[in-house]
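pasting input
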Amino acid sequence: MAGNTFGQIFRITTFGESHGPGIGVVIDGCPAGISVDIDVIQKELDRRKPGQSRVTTQRKEEDQAIIQSGVFEGQSTGMPISIYIKNKDQKSKDYSHIADTYRPSHADMVYDKKYGIRDYRGGGRSSARETAARVAAGAIAKMILNQSGIEIHAGVTQVGHIKLDKNISDINWAETENNIIRCPDGETAKKMEDYIMEVKKDGDTIGGVISCHIVNVPVGLGEPVFDKLHADLAKAMLSINAVKGFEYGSGFSSVSMRGSEHNDSWENIDGQLTTKTNYSGGIQGGISNGMPIYFNVAFKPVATIMKDQASVNSEGEASTVSGKGRHDPCVVPRAVPIVEAMAALVIVDHLLRMRVNR
Amino acid sequence: MAGNTFGQIFRITTFGESHGPGIGVVIDGCPAGISVDIDVIQKELDRRKPGQSRVTTQRKEEDQAIIQSGVFEGQSTGMPISIYIKNKDQKSKDYSHIADTYRPSHADMVYDKKYGIRDYRGGGRSSARETAARVAAGAIAKMILNQSGIEIHAGVTQVGHIKLDKNISDINWAETENNIIRCPDGETAKKMEDYIMEVKKDGDTIGGVISCHIVNVPVGLGEPVFDKLHADLAKAMLSINAVKGFEYGSGFSSVSMRGSEHNDSWENIDGQLTTKTNYSGGIQGGISNGMPIYFNVAFKPVATIMKDQASVNSEGEASTVSGKGRHDPCVVPRAVPIVEAMAALVIVDHLLRMRVNR
Amino acid sequence: MAGNTFGQIFRITTFGESHGPGIGVVIDGCPAGISVDIDVIQKELDRRKPGQSRVTTQRKEEDQAIIQSGVFEGQSTGMPISIYIKNKDQKSKDYSHIADTYRPSHADMVYDKKYGIRDYRGGGRSSARETAARVAAGAIAKMILNQSGIEIHAGVTQVGHIKLDKNISDINWAETENNIIRCPDGETAKKMEDYIMEVKKDGDTIGGVISCHIVNVPVGLGEPVFDKLHADLAKAMLSINAVKGFEYGSGFSSVSMRGSEHNDSWENIDGQLTTKTNYSGGIQGGISNGMPIYFNVAFKPVATIMKDQASVNSEGEASTVSGKGRHDPCVVPRAVPIVEAMAALVIVDHLLRMRVNR
Amino acid sequence: MAGNTFGQIFRITTFGESHGPGIGVVIDGCPAGISVDIDVIQKELDRRKPGQSRVTTQRKEEDQAIIQSGVFEGQSTGMPISIYIKNKDQKSKDYSHIADTYRPSHADMVYDKKYGIRDYRGGGRSSARETAARVAAGAIAKMILNQSGIEIHAGVTQVGHIKLDKNISDINWAETENNIIRCPDGETAKKMEDYIMEVKKDGDTIGGVISCHIVNVPVGLGEPVFDKLHADLAKAMLSINAVKGFEYGSGFSSVSMRGSEHNDSWENIDGQLTTKTNYSGGIQGGISNGMPIYFNVAFKPVATIMKDQASVNSEGEASTVSGKGRHDPCVVPRAVPIVEAMAALVIVDHLLRMRVNR
């Protein structure tokens, strides 16, 4: 049973390989009457596209979104919305050298063994290019959330050992798009940029962390007992290429805290139930409690490096993977819109699911 | 759309509240011909049950599993397997004081607002008691995995600041059941036990980490692009009460690593493809690669403490939650079988899903 | 992938075999705040139970429903509702003679070959006893529908060659429960009863038709393009044991009609859009149009007859199936509440699905 | 919750409106390693396309299928297969006159009320044009079935009152494509053709029946208790535009049969279990028994007629729907490949589902 569909009510199915004719997404379950702005979709795709700055791959892709169905006179009709993005810069020859070789920490071997056949060009379906389809769908999810006043902000808070030294609630998310790192702090961004360029010079790559902050979420999103809101967020994030970890609220740091310290006391602020602290990360028992939701996503260093690596080919023979092509030295700047898109898909899905609770 | 079902092919639905007549699970999709041993189910339930040691709650529950369907003459028939566990030690009066009060960091408020009605006795459905049903289902999943030689071991590797100082591959999992902490190292377990007792004396609680290690997994489990094996594991773990974070393989530590260091080189060892290192945690591109799978799960401190806490009631008035009842000072010792059960459910589901890949 | 779950939002999973400890159903997705009356559930089960009249099997089953979860102080809580019915009159010895024999037109052979194991006692899971669980779930669905004013009426309109000679819109459904046939016309019922008794005397069985009529359905139920309201009704009906056909609105008779005759003209009656005729059966393009929905369901004669039949056993050897036991000469009188239950499940599911359309 | 997805393991999602840029389908769950022949897909689409004969609409559509993903070097890769068909002959002006009018027995009104917005051009998504996407997906399903030797044949067996007078097992399906009616009997086809032309001359339309016959189906397809093979076939057929009824095996005629007459006796023919008669239609207890599967599908007369009809517009005012455009006088000749496609989708889905039974 294949796994290219995400969501229960707002349900997306992505398709397409990095070097086939194109990639796309079908959204089934978008409510009717949503104003769909193709320019907003395009803007989100541009945030993800390669070649946008010196810290990203130099491949150029236009990633132009075309809506093929489900929108009539600027509004969603309740019918499936299909969005298609043609592949343009497909230098297939770049990949011929890896047809038989299993690159370290790539999906080459497992696809070969699982399916007995593999579209090896550029990683095929395992390429992060697939996430462009998610970003397009996420843009529509955001349009729905905006109608409810819900805002999602993600930003880079760590690159290698360089960490943004700020409490999540003190971050000024408006800063995120002011630098090419997408770190919501200019000064830290500069340090991160310098570090990435240093790593790049070495032909190497580096990991990072993206933090996400969601405000104005109504009470009640999330479904006991398996589809807890944070469980679905975790799955969404871990489904993004190169992600290795997820924590929400106090996360891993809660491990060494005591209950008396960690518990978020209730307060009635002018008729509004709030908590003094927010270690819960806006979610209790898997259900949003109205406080800001926040979480961290850990990204490993990109596996494609500009150095020769010893490996094995599909015949089991020793071979060398040489460092060719154009790749990101650090994936997090371009992954910020992807994190936001996946978060938006989860939130909008649960927003719709909540409608049938009572 | 409710969320009490987990899995795609091996699909479980749990039901029941902590203080209703009982809890249970229906497994739909268990293949026919599996030998089902009720004693093994019972043994797993006993690992999870309250009152088993001085570091757990002193509530006594027998948690006796009854198979109601789907097993004939000791074998699964391919029909739904229903397992039921009667609630016995239901001191409902213990909970009357919280009928109107929103306990800090509990699900009281969100259930009230979401559903407009709440079975407040002992947390009702939001109680960790629900996980007994998962453990019962997980026991059957393990029976299937054992037939394939797949082994799942979980153990406590951190309590508060006390951390097991061992590489995951060096852990002797056979040690786990030799102490009441379920830490796979006797010496560390002793320190953890002392610490938990100290915390308990304070009427407080403490968090912890459970690590899980899965071996003999065949190549090919996990479905691109959303149902990556680790994405489903993440969701499974985050769906467990009190879990705040998940990381697999190198996890959050990968963030500060370079690609040249993090990449797992392929080797051909006597015809077997293996990797020199295993930062990938046995999963590449979301698909198992045959190497050991491992991950960490962060648990927050239990929210119920034996201290008075300021809170708010359902009318929005200030109120006090007094520390009564019998609860766990640290949840991780009893959560070990739950982590194993959820892992087993994910692995068996993907094992079955793999059958239709080609 | 097993098939014991029905519905998308109001989702039921049934379990249990005819001669195991009991049967049951878990309803996931019942909205919170529904008044749940156990007596109403019991009343529906009593309409379905064996031994209720001389035209049904003489087996006695009490079929007492127990609610195990999801209802608190008489109201649904939004949590899974589990209903359990113990098996009482399990004369397992009655079935020992068929352990190895494949009864004609039963599921014995196919279960054996499909699963390699079979709970042969009374047909196990393939027994129509399973439908009691559906009736219990359908009773809760009806409680929700009643709140919306939607009414579902089914009745027997044909037994063998004896047909109720009335237009569907002229039927007085209140008559249905006034006779043991559940034919909404006393005179025809008497003829049907005489005929069934005649067939029974021969040790034989006979087929029949149940018609169903649903009124006060709002405009908009049904989802293009696959989950058309009538497509889901068709599946629901065909999933009932012994059903061989389904038609809605004009049904098979539409085949020889011309478009000019068959088209339902729109009329504006005091601001209410209605159609002059209703060949559409209240559904257009798969979506309810506010007019009465009606359909027919064809039931074959029960396969268990009181005559010896030549057959083959599991070894492929010729054998004789002797006519023993207590069975229905005609299934339709007891199937009326089953048809209503399945219809209610479909309608309530689509009523909830409609909430996320716009 | 929208309904544009069909199938559990071999799962298709269709998208696109009749007068938008195009229509398409994404197939998720096609096993890897299937030889995919674009010409075969095209051939099936050509059987469905308008303008192919004098008994069909004179609209010309090329319906050229383009594979956008999931096929590499002629083989399926296990990744989603996306097939796209551009709309060509979109005379949108033809439909401007119905923007505000509710055509009798069309989906205009219900779409308007359900979604509050409607792509009125040519029926938008409710147009039978959507079924081209199903035919494309069904062609791939057939490729898989052919590998297993399973053959699906459908043909027109009734048009208006003209009925093919043959037992289903005596039909020579090879005849179906020899006439423009797709009736598997030349003589009857001629009568049907004459009758359709007569109806067409009147500016009217007529209904019909398509019968379907499936051979070489292995024992074991179909899942108790809801996803019975015939229940899924019923849903599949009723999801096709203009279908009003479904019956399998003895169908509605079983109603007046006795059990002793209707039961299919088992025979051991050279080690092969077969039944003397096949009133069961190859399915028992919802599971295929190896005998031929057969069923009938009733189609109503097409709602678009070349006559003026009184109706109501979206304002509730009386209006006239004038008979314009180019439409089919009888839908069944072009619906034959659609019935086959939907049947193929059901069979292949259950063929894959069977792999996880034991």
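fyi Chain C has a mean pLDDT of 94.
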